[in-house]
Amino acid sequence: MLSELLNTDFRPLDRKACDLYLSAVEQVRPAQLALPTPCADWTLHGLLRHQVSQDEGFAAAARGEGARLSHWRDGDLGTDHVAAAKTSAELVTAAFAEASLDQEFILPEVREGGGFPAALAISFHFVDLVVHAWDVATAIGAPWEPSEELLTASLKVAAIVPDDGRGPGASFDRPVASAPGDAPGRRLLSLLGRTP
């Protein structure tokens, strides 16, 4: 599975995941920003700010500047959360487009020291968007309808997420049990510690 991921250009999928995520964000009204999300300790405002920070951090990593933690922590929603989300999505999409798949991305929020191959790093950003789209949609009671293509690719990435480093406060919680006949979306959420 890892070999397949390393040989996949996730940039087109990441752009589609951005669209999925932004379609959920566009439905969030300012009064809803204080609502809780499925991510423990995060309101919608906190989750959206986190994703802006992640977009900025991944964009910096694509430019070879990912080691600076400030790139991963300074996301700001300003007075327009939708505009902030769109701006950061455009920033990271452009940075990924200019990056070489032969380079390494330094991702201090994922692991201290060392880098990740670009394809794998972009796959991390991709799966985050797909799942955070569910978090946002769930918080506001909106539908979450990723395409089969997004779900198939996300399940492959989710399958390699290690068990160590999971738990409260981490990117993903421990896997939740799922039934053999569960739909792909439900299996994805369960694999990444969400309770559908």
Q: Could you characterize what this model shows?
A:
By secondary structure, this protein is mostly helical. It has a single domain (2-146), classed as dinb family like domain (Four Helix Bundle (Hemerythrin (Met), subunit A), Up-down Bundle). It is built from seven helices and two strands; from the N terminus they run H-H-H-H-E-E-H-H-H. Strands 1-2 form a two-stranded antiparallel ribbon. Helix 2 runs antiparallel to helix 4, helix 3 packs parallel to helix 4 and helix 5 crosses helix 6. It is globular. 39% of the residues are buried. The mean pLDDT is 92.
Mean pLDDT: 92
Count of distinct strands: 2
* Largest sheet report: 2 strands, antiparallel
Global structural class: mainly alpha
N-end to C-end Cα span: 25 Å
Would you identify the CATH architecture? Up-down Bundle
Approximate shape: globular
Kindly report the name of the CATH homologous superfamily: dinb family like domain
CATH topology: Four Helix Bundle (Hemerythrin (Met), subunit A)
Protein name: TIGR03086 family protein
Pfam families: MDMPI_N (PF11716)
Domain Mycothiol-dependent maleylpyruvate isomerase metal-binding: 17-137
Region (Disordered): 165-186
Task: Give a short summary of the structure.
The protein is an all-alpha fold.
